[in-house]
Amino acid sequence: MVEATLSDIMAAVPEPMLHLSQSGQVAQANHAARVLLGDWIEGRSYAAVLRQPGLLSAIEAAQGGGTETEARLHLTDQTGESQFRVRISPVGAPNARGIRALLLHLTDITHLHEAEEMRRDFVANVSHELRTPLTAVMGFIETLRGPARDDAAARERFLGIMEAEARRMNRLVSDLLSLSRVESQERQRPSTDVDLKVVLEGVIAALRPAAEDQGCSLVLEFAPPEPGLVPVMIASGYRLKGDRDQLMQVFLNLCENALKYGGTGKSVTVRLGWQAGTGAIKGPVLVTQVIDQGEGIDPLHIPRLTERFYRVDNHRSRAMGGTGLGLAIVKHIVNRHRGRLRIDSQLGQGSVFTVVLPAA
């Protein structure tokens, strides 16, 4: 049996590892460590390579104390900050000065901190979203028990506002549950045969009364297929593998937004068609565009529109009953269907929300 050397063992580890000699130099670095820190590190002082006081102190303690310890390493580049957990393990016997050689094993924990940040932000956002309506309801209850106890007109007005705030909280809780459910299913690809044309016809039928109340038109159009697509695919209808209820949720959300922000008396067009897939999506794809004639969106906001609770106009969105979660739900459903969501908009020129889904 061939005896493995320390360099063989380090080379077999996919995560960065450093061997520090008793003299304080980087005696060996595996491939992952050289990719992370640079090829220049071997033979250099560990203090020149690592250069972070907390980590250097932990290394010095392990060199003299002979016990395993942990520290953190923070690295920053053009992509942002990465954080590593560094396990520091003494190896071999100490030299005459009581200094041991060390093995440093670096584990990337950036994703754990990102998840923790997201959790904190999410809790803070939910708390903020619920605090406003709860404060309003509690204030009105106090008023109804006091100064407005015998004022019938004020009582009716306050009860109406309380009902609206309660409905808002109910919508928020409903969207949070929906988002949680969609996220838990995101890696499970749907397998049911769905006709997207039927889904869109159902969305338009459900929203037509609301559109008519606003003096808006909501119409479904069919774009001509691109040349070169397989005729049998087109002849089979607008079919794909999907979750009908979730697809209905996607287009209800997009069409409701188009009606809300498109403006009174304006038209909203839903255009469905076939195209050839590009990039990661191969083969024919179904492309659905929801087109409004509203004020449009500043391109600066577009990259963040699918973030939870992100709103271009907080006051207007809340006044219209928005929870700030709709487009986040849309994004996760589209991801589950292995599709793409694209948003195109210019101020004063309306908006186009495009959903690209692989055909069955």
Structural commentary:
The protein has 360 residues and is α+β, with helices and mostly antiparallel strands. The protein folds into three domains: 6-108, Beta-Lactamase (2-Layer Sandwich); 110-185, Helix Hairpins (Orthogonal Bundle), CATH 1.10.287; 190-360, Histidine kinase-like ATPase, C-terminal domain (Heat Shock Protein 90, 2-Layer Sandwich). The protein is built from eleven helices and twelve strands. It has helices at residues 6-12, 31-37, 46-50, 53-65, 110-145, 152-185, 196-213, 231-235, 244-262, 314-319, 326-336; strands spanning 17-20, 26-29, 69-77, 80-91, 101-108, 192-195, 217-222, 239-242, 267-276, 284-291, 340-345, 351-358. The protein has a five-stranded antiparallel β-sheet. Strands 7-9-10-12-11 form a five-stranded mixed β-sheet. A two-stranded antiparallel sheet has the order 6-8. α5 runs antiparallel to α6 (152-185), α6 runs parallel beside α11 (326-336) and α7 packs parallel to α9. It is flat.
